[in-house]
Amino acid sequence: MPGILEAISNGFGFLKELFSFQRQKLELKNSPEMRDAAERAKEQERVDKVNKTTKDGDLDAIRKDLSILAALLIPLVLVAGGCTATITPKHVETTQIGFDGTNVNAGLIGQAEDGRYIITETLRKKYNALVAIYPKGIDFHPFLIPLTTDSGLTVRRMESGVQTWYMDQEHMAAFRLMNAWLKEGKKPR
Question: In Å, what is the CA distance from 51 to each residue of 45, 57, 59?
Answer without folding.
Answer: 10, 10, 10
